[in-house]
Each structure stands twice: as structure tokens, then as C-alpha cells.
Design goal:
The complex is a heterodimer of chains A (336) and B (445).
Chain A: H1 3-38, H2 41-73, H3 76-84, H4 86-107, H5 114-138, E1 143-146, E2 149-152, H6 154-159, H7 161-188, H8 192-223, H9 225-233, H10 235-253, H11 258-280, E3 283-285, E4 289-290, H12 291-294, H13 298-326, H14 330-333
Helix pairs in contact in A: 1-2, 1-5, 1-7, 1-11, 1-13, 2-4, 2-13, 4-5, 5-7, 7-8, 7-11, 8-9, 8-10, 9-11, 10-11
Chain B: H1 6-45, H2 48-82, H3 84-116, H4 125-130, H5 132-154, E1 160-162, E2 165-167, H6 171-175, H7 180-208, H8 214-248, H9 250-257, E3 263-264, E4 268-270, E5 273-274, E6 280-281, E7 284-286, H10 289-295, E8 301-302, H11 318-344, H12 353-379, E9 384-386, E10 390-391, H13 392-395, H14 402-429, H15 433-444
Antiparallel strand pairs in B: 1-2, 3-8, 4-7, 5-6, 9-10
Helix pairs in contact in B: 1-2, 1-5, 1-7, 1-12, 1-14, 2-3, 2-14, 3-5, 5-7, 7-8, 7-12, 8-9, 8-11, 11-12
The chains are: A mainly alpha (336), B mainly alpha (445).
């Protein structure tokens, strides 16, 4: 296998990891803020404190890993994306700062302030929107290359239906992923009230997830026909994704096997996410930059891959320990 | 609009982010060691006070780490957002340590999470202490990896440029460039030193406020001793840094010392003023000192700034940063030695309020020393971003919105800074150590 494929596969996997863990995190913040309004706060706050606080820094590292990794494997992405992403990514940093400081200031510190909880919740909605804009830009059509470097056409970007459908999908997916996970977590904690509430949220957001996802495929047809065609060539991946989706909704509907439902949901997103990623190949920024133009030299690629393997050997056992203590430890989850 | 020039704007935004981040990065590297030492002493002496020290420091530490994570993410992204041309070039050669830093931090974050939430899950304190080892190692390794990148910017190596094309890349040679050893040692030892003085300042402040609890006296004594050890280490390493500069970046040293003409028996000038014709007035001159700092030989010849073309000279104001850094460093070393000597011979002035106020000031001063050191290092590399290869002008973004982003981030850092102070105060104010110790005693019986 060539270095560019290895690099892309690794990075895409980390991005997928981030999509799942960050969605859980973002959605939980939103549900927490929403329940403040409806007076059901006690139900969710406990779960958020017991699960999200110990792992939020780990969640953040997935993102850092992705962007440091992509600049390492494909240094040209820094040149192409650096200038044009100044505004959307700066906004994302500030939103991430709100979330990070919420965990630090509120849960480790003193009692929470309502306004802060709302900002924290709102940032969970705005972050997927501001981060997913990067994917929209990568579809091409918004960037022109001038003498002084790449320039982003903001008007075209914000008037494109593709932009908004991706934004909406990202927000809805966050709700769905988060509520499915939290249903399972609440169920394991033996918190019937929370389970019932979150199960309801999961069912509410299930259908919109599929509708908006299909909408994007439709939008792509007019925006980037090449990509649309290669998506269709991978129809079987999206078909599997859909079957997994039906499976997980069925379990949640029947109020059983929430763990399996969560795994099926992860599978659903994995097939869709990798299907989308593979169909994009080889473009990093359509049509200006491909993985072949952008890839680093062999010496660096080998060094990065060696470090990656060594790093994983170190991290996987540590992550396992973390999960065992906070995610799979029955008495911890139950708050004992 | 603010900052018409995107290059200037990018420099100012990077200055802002790094100046803010380095506070939390320094404490993030230094405090885990302090917690480890306190907990270890506590286990060894079977003294609950030290265990409590570890516990309370760890609680405050989390808040600092969180802000460090946030600002670290910011600078990581800003490198690409503000310096896209630099990151494209550098990515080919120096991406390896950046990548490794993420792993080191990942490792640290996982174990920090476990450590913090498992205080009461272990019967045996030693096992709990073991969890801190990866945290401290991860923190120090993060500092190591990131500092190699800064070393690379000062002393690029590990590649050749043939006809404008990069070739023969050797990532390890780039990482272990000539600047790496002194820089890494300096950064890590000053982080330990500054963290010790900051914690000493907190303890001294509590004592001044009237709490004469043994806990605070023990904390003060422990941290001042650690501070002394690393102040001495820092001074030694600083001397090596001077020799590194003299050999590999003489223009930086010359600009910092206002040493214009190449000459032997060079004196070291501290403070003073310089005019446009390179005349120094009111400076404090230490004969032979610059020759000694540069080459360990009072008669050695030191390269002057005028040997370099005018457009490649660093700004002369870095002289003041150097002076501040060196004065604070040597001052704190002498001061902590005085404290240690004073307590050893039981002199009463070390327990006087005025002396404790000096300790309180030593904390922020140590941090100012760190900041000055970085300002000197970074302004002293101008006009280069990658010395001899790429200037900051060539590296920066052309985006028109950098000024706007500066305002946005200044606001963010202001809020974060205020937040940290408020939260840390809240955390410890209504939670006096004697009360907490009482609870702890009750638990144990």
C-alpha cells in the first residue's frame, strides 16, 4: 500500500473517532441546557459529570491528532486550507474554548451558572456547524487560487444549499449519536427516568438523520457530479449503513439491547463516513489538491507511520484502562 | 481596520496566543512533578499534610491544564492558519515531533483523568502515585517534542535544498538539531523552577493571611527547596545556551547584548539605552562577562552585530528581555538560597511578613522570566521564521481578517484568564485546608 493511502486511512479513522466521541459530548451539552429549560436538569447533569468530565480532554485530542496528522502526512493542506479557514476554524477554537472551560470551571469548580450552561449547550450545536464547513469547502467550487494564495468565496459558500444541508446533517447527527449513546449509558446506570427521556430523544432524531443524509447525496449531484458518481458506485456501503440504522432504531423502539443499538449506530455511521471518504478519494481539496500532490516525502511518511504504530501500542492499553474505569465500571457509573 | 498588514497581524496574534499559552504550558509541565514529589514525601514520611498538598495542587492543576489544552489547540491550529507557507515547508521536515507531541499529550490526558477521579479507589497510596508517573512523563515529553520544533526554527537541519526543491529529508536529524539540547533543557528546568515558585507564592500568601497551619509551612519549605534546585540547574543550562548562541546564532546573542563590533575581552552590558548610532549609555558593564558567557574564556573573541547585513539583524529591544530574564533567574536563585540558608540556621527574618511578601512576588516574577525568555528567543530570530531559509514575511497568510481574529482571541484569553482566577479562588477560599484535613482525619479513623 502506498503511503498516501495508509496516511489517509489512519487520519480518516481518527476523524471518525472524533465524530463519534465529540458528537456524544456536543449533544450531551445541548440536552443538558435544554433540560435546564424544562426543569429536568438533575436527570442529565449527573451523567454528564460522571462520564464527560473525565474524558473531554481525550475527546479533544482526537481532533488535534487529526489536524496535526494531516499537516504531517499532507503538508500542502496547510498551504491550501490555512488561509481560507482562518475565520471558520478560529470560531471553532473559540467554541471549543467555551466547552473546555465549562468542564474546567463548572464541574471541577463551584456550582454552575445557568448562562454558562446555555453557552455550553449552544456551543455543542455551533461546533458541528463550524467544523463541517471544512468538509463543504473540500467539495470544491468555493476556492480560487490567486497569486497571493487560495481565496475563499464566502458569499458562494453561505448561499450554497450544499453548505446548509451539511450543517443541518451535522447538527442532527450529533443529536442522534449522542442520544443513542446516552440512552445506553443511562440504562447501565440504572437510571430509568433518564433512559426513558433519552430514548425519546433518540427516536425523535432518528428519521431526520436519514432524511438529511439522503438530502446531501442529492445536493452533491448538482454541486460536484464526479463525487456524486463515485458515491453511487459505493451504493452497497450506504445500503449496509441503512440496514444497521434500521437495526439500531428497532432495538431502541423495543427498549432492549441498548448496547447493541449503540454499536449498530456506530457501524451505520462508519459505513456512511468511510463510503463518503472513499468516494472523495483522491481529492483533499477538489479539484486543486489530491493526496498524490500533497503527500510528504518518504522519509517523513515512514517515520510518521512508525511513530503511529508505537504510539498506538502505548495508547490502546491506556484507553482500555480509562474505559474500564469510567465507561464499563458498573459501580462508578451508578455513582457509588 | 486594525493591523492592515497581515504579516504584522499574524505576528501579533501568535505573540498573544503564545504569551498566554506559555503560562499554562509551563505550569502544565512543572506542577505534575511537584504533585509527585509531595505525594511521595507524604507516603515516605506517612504525613497526611503532604498527601493533602498533592490532592489540593492536583485539583487546581486540572483547571490550569484545561486552559492549557484549549490554548494549545488554538496555537496548533493558528500555526497553519497564520503561517500556511511555513507549515507547508516545515511539515515536510519537522512534522514528526509535532505528531509525537500529540501522543505524549494523549497519554498524559488519559492518566490525568484516571489519577484525578481515583483518589479514593486505591487502598494503597503508592499505586495511586504510580498513575502520576505517566502524567509527569507525558508532560515533560510534550515539552521536549514541541521545543525541538522551536529548535528547528532556530537551527534548521535534516534536509537539503537543491534548486529550490527540498531533498534528503531526515526527520530525526531535524528533531535533534544543534539548538535542541540547550533549548529543551532550559524549557523543562525553568518550567519546574517557575512552578515551584508559583506554589511557594501561594503558600507564603496563606501564611501572611494569618493561617499558621503546619500544612502551609511545609508546602512553602518544600517548594522553595525545589525552586532552589531548579534555579541552579537553570543558571547552568542558561550558560550553555549562551555558548550555543555564540556558536550557532551569534546575531541573536549580539543583538541581545548590544555587542556591535567583533572584539575580544567582550564585556556584558546590562540595561541602559542605545541610540541610532549604536552608542550605549547608562548601561551596567561587567568586564569580560560576555566573552565568558560565549566561550568560557575572558579573552575570547565575540562576533558583533555589525558583521551581519542590516536586514538580517534582530531588533535591539530584545536586550531588555534578556536582562529581565537573567536578572529574575539569578535573583530567584540567590533569594531561594537565602531562604534555605535562613531556615537552616533558624534566622527569624525568613518568617517575617516582609520576607514572605517577597516570596509571594517571586511566583509572578518567575513567570515573567519565562515570558521574557520566550520573547527574547522569538524576537531574536527575526526576520526569520526558519533561520536562513524563510522569513516571517514569506511565511504569513495574506488573509484580511487577521486583525479581527486578534480582537476575538484577545477577548477569549481575557475571559479565560479572569475565569481561571475566579475559579481557583472559589475552589480554595471556601475550602480551608484545616477543614479539609479535619475531614480527612475523620475519614481515616
Amino acid at each position: 500500500m502506498s503511503y498516501e493511502i495508509i496516511g489517509m486511512a489512519v487520519l480518516w479513522t481518527f476523524l471518525f473517532g472524533y465524530v463519534i466521541v465529540a458528537s456524544i459530548d456536543f449533544g450531551a451539552g445541548f440536552f443538558n441546557a435544554y433540560s435546564l429549560l424544562t426543569g429536568k436538569q438533575h436527570i442529565l447533569t449527573k451523567i454528564i459529570q460522571r462520564y464527560l468530565s473525565p474524558v473531554w480532554e481525550v475527546t479533544n485530542v482526537f481532533l488535534v491528532f487529526f489536524f496535526v496528522g494531516i499537516m504531517g502526512f499532507f503538508p500542502s493542506t496547510a498551504f491550501y486550507y490555512g488561509s481560507i479557514l482562518l475565520i471558520p476554524v478560529s470560531i471553532s477554537i473559540i467554541l471549543l474554548a467555551i466547552r473546555g472551560s465549562y468542564y474546567a470551571f463548572e464541574t471541577y469548580g463551584a456550582k454552575g451558572h445557568r448562562g454558562y450552561a446555555f453557552m455550553y449547550g449552544a456551543s455543542g450545536l455551533l461546533l458541528p456547524a463550524s467544523l463541517s464547513v471544512v468538509l463543504t469547502i473540500s467539495e470544491g467550487g468555493f476556492v480560487s487560487i490567486t497569486d497571493s494564495g487560495p481565496v475563499l468565496d464566502f458569499v458562494a459558500l453561505f448561499t450554497s444549499p450544499l453548505t446548509w444541508s451539511i450543517v443541518i446533517l451535522s447538527v442532527i447527527a450529533v443529536m442522534y449519536i449522542s442520544s443513542v449513546f446516552l440512552t445506553w449509558y443511562a440504562d447501565r446506570a440504572g437510571d430509568l427516568e433518564a433512559t426513558e427521556l433519552l430514548r425519546k430523544y433518540a427516536l425523535i432524531w432518528a428519521l431526520p438523520t436519514i432524511v438529511t443524509a439522503s438530502g446531501i447525496i442529492y445536493e452533491l449531484r448538482s454541486h460536484n457530479f464526479d463525487h456524486y458518481q463515485s458515491l453511487l458506485n459505493l451504493w452497497w456501503m450506504f445500503a449496509i449503513s441503512f440496514i444497521l440504522f434500521v437495526g439500531s432504531v428497532w432495538f431502541i423502539w423495543k427498549k432492549r439491547n441498548y448496547g447493541t443499538a449503540f454499536l449498530l449506530m456506530v457501524g451505520q455511521f462508519a459505513f456512511a463516513f468511510y463510503g463518503y471518504g472513499i468516494s472523495k478519494y483522491p481529492y483533499l481539496l477538489y479539484p486543486h489538491l489530491t493526496v498524490f500532490d500533497g503527500v510528504t516525502n518518504d522519509a517523513m511518511a515512514i517515520a510518521l507511520i512508525i511513530v503511529f504504530v508505537a504510539g498506538l501500542a502505548l495508547l490502546l492499553p491506556s484507553l482500555y484502562l480509562l474505559m474500564r474505569l469510567f465507561l464499563f465500571n458498573q459501580s462508578y457509573i451508578k455513582g457509588k | 481596520m486594525l493591523f492592515e498588514d497581515p504579516v504584522f497581524g499574524s505576528r501579533m496574534l501568535t505573540l498573544l496566543t503564545l504569551s498566554f499559552h506559555v503560562i499554562f504550558a509551563t505550569l502544565g509541565v512543572g506542577i505534575p512533578l511537584m504533585i509527585m514529589i509531595a505525594q511521595w514525601v507524604g507516603i515516605k514520611k506517612d504525613d497526611l499534610h503532604y498527601i493533602m498538598m498533592a490532592r489540593r495542587w492536583a485539583r487546581g492543576f486540572v483547571v490550569l491544564v484545561a486552559v492549557g489544552v484549549v490554548t494549545g489547540t488554538a496555537i496548533g491550529l493558528q500555526l497553519a492558519l497564520l503561517w500556511p507557507n511555513f507549515m507547508e515547508l516545515a511539515g515536510h521536515v519537522i512534522a514528526l515531533p509535532l505528531f509525537m507531541e500529540v501522543f505524549a499529550f494523549f497519554f498524559e490526558a488519559i492518566f490525568l483523568g484516571i489519577y484525578l477521579y481515583t483518589w479514593d479507589r486505591f487502598e494503597n497510596q503508592r499505586k495511586h502515585l504510580l498513575l502520576l508517573v505517566p502524567v509527569a512523563i507525558g508532560a515533560a515529553m510534550s515539552a521536549f517534542f514541541i521545543t525541538t520544533v522551536n529548535g528547528f526554527m532556530n537551527a534548521p537541519s535534516g534536509f537539503d535544498i537543491v534548486n529550490g526543491q527540498m531533498s534528503g529529508v531526515n526527520p530525526l536529524a531535524a528533531m535533534f538539531n544543534v539548538a535542541t539540547p540547550t533549548k529543551v533543557a532550559h524549557v523543562i528546568s525553568t518550567a519546574f523552577m517557575a512552578s515551584a515558585f508559583i506554589l511557594a507564592a501561594v503558600a507564603a500568601f496563606q501564611l501572611i493571611r494569618g493561617s499558621n497551619h503546619a500544612y502551609h509551612r511545609k508546602a512553602l519549605h518544600l517548594t522553595m527547596k525545589i525552586g532552589l534546585v531548579f534555579a541552579v540547574a537553570t543558571a547552568l543550562i542558561g550558560d550553555f545556551s549562551g555558548k550555543y548562541l555564540a556558536e550557532h546564532q551569534p546575531e541573536k546573542l549580539a543583538a541581545a547584548e548590544w555587542h556591535f563590533e567583533t572584539e575580544a575581552e567582550a564585556p556584558l552590558v546590562l540595561f541602559g539605552f542605545v541610540d541610532d548610532d549604536q552608542n550605549v549609555s547608562y548601561g551596567l558593564e561587567i568586564p569580560y562577562a560576555l566573552s565568558i558567557l560565549s566561550h568560557n574564556d575572558p579573552f575570547a573573541e565575540v562576533t558583533g552585530l555589525n558583521e551581519f547585513p542590516e536586514e538580517e539583524r534582530p531588533p535591539l529591544f530584545i536586550h531588555y528581555f534578556f536582562d529581565i530574564m537573567v536578572s529574575i533567574g539569578t535573583g530567584l536563585m540567590a533569594f531561594s538560597f537565602l531562604y534555605w540558608f535562613g531556615t537552616r540556621f533558624n534566622w527569624s527574618f525568613v518568617r517575617a511578613n516582609w520576607f514572605r511578601w517577597l516570596i509571594v512576588f517571586s511566583g509572578p516574577l518567575a513567570m515573567l522570566g519565562i515570558e521574557s525568555g520566550w520573547w527574547m528567543a522569538e524576537f531574536g530570530r527575526q526576520p526569520w521564521i526558519l533561520r536562513g531559509i524563510m522569513t516571517v514575511d514569506e511565511a504569513a497568510t495574506q488573509s484580511d481578517y487577521v486583525g479581527l481574529m486578534f480582537v476575538l482571541f484577545a477577548g477569549l484569553y481575557f475571559i479565560l484568564g479572569v475565569g481561571v482566577v475566579v475559579v481557583l479562588r472559589k475552589m480554595f477560599k471556601g475550602n480551608d485546608v484545616s477543614v479539609e484535613l479535619g475531614e480527612q482525619d475523620g475519614d481515616q479513623r
